[in-house]
Amino acid sequence: MSEKIDFYYDIVSPYSYLAAVQLAELEKKTGAEVTWRPIFLGGLFKEIGNKAPLSLESKKRYMFSEDLPRLARYYQVPYTFPEVFPTNTLKVQRALAALPATERPALSLQLFDLYWGQGQDLGQPEVALEALGTKIAGLADEEVAKTALKDFTAEAISRGAFGAPTLIWKDKIYFGSDRIHLLEADLLSS
Fold first, then answer.
1. 3-state helix, strand, coil in the chain (%, to 5)
2. Which homologous superfamily is 4-189 in?
3. Catalytic pick from 2, 13, 65, 158?
4. How far apart are CA 156 and CA 141, in angstroms?
5. CA nearest 53: which of 13, 112, 111?
6. For labeling, which of 11, 83, 108, 111 is most exposed (least CB within 10 Å)?
7. How far is residue 103's CA from residue 186's CA, in Å, rounded to a whole number?
8. How confident is the model at residue 50 (pLDDT cuts 50, 70, 90)?
9. What does each C-alpha distance from 127 to 15, 92, 103, 115, 182 come to in angstroms?
């Protein structure tokens, strides 16, 4: 039986994007199975009293002009600073939460690419509709989607998450896109 990892993420998080693009390789190398669990990062921050890392201007400048472009080059993925940041990802996160777990990775990667790769504003209804498709976009307004996203967010908080991306294996937290190699090493040595 393969090891199980829960991946808590929000499309608005650039480091969630950089973690997401590493997960297929992690599964391939370790045989582990990653379950993608969308959360609403704004709701998580509000609930636990955390703040986005952008409150410090020098950190914000470094993050967007140096760190993220450098990491995108390293992982060989596109990076374009989004038209609007942060944007409201509530609709897309609800839609992802309403989908079966097996459908989340492919659509999430597409959404990450639109927002962080191409810089499109997923908070705009027409962009979200085009990205999600009418059927999936319609899910976002259903009560089941709202409840699912709230539940995933509450679950992440109850397990100790304080931001995104958070990966959890055997109740151990691996926070950030730069901790996946540590998770891989731990999986391979277990």
1. 60, 10, 30
2. Glutaredoxin (3.40.30.10)
3. 13
4. 22
5. 13
6. 83
7. 27
8. confident
9. 22, 10, 20, 10, 36
Tens of pLDDT, residue by residue over 65-114, are 999 999 999 999 999 999 899 999 999 999 999 999 999 999 999 999 99
Exposure class string for 175-186: b at 16+ Cβ within 10 A, else e:
bbbebbeebbee
* Alpha carbon distance 96, 167 (integer Å): 17
190 is catalytic: no
Q: Read off φ and ψ for residue 94, nearest 5 degrees.
A: -65, -45
The reported pTM is 0.96
* pLDDT tens, residue by residue, 130-148: 999 998 999 999 999 999 9
CB 2 within 8 A of CB 33: yes
Contact 171, 130 (CB under 8 A): no
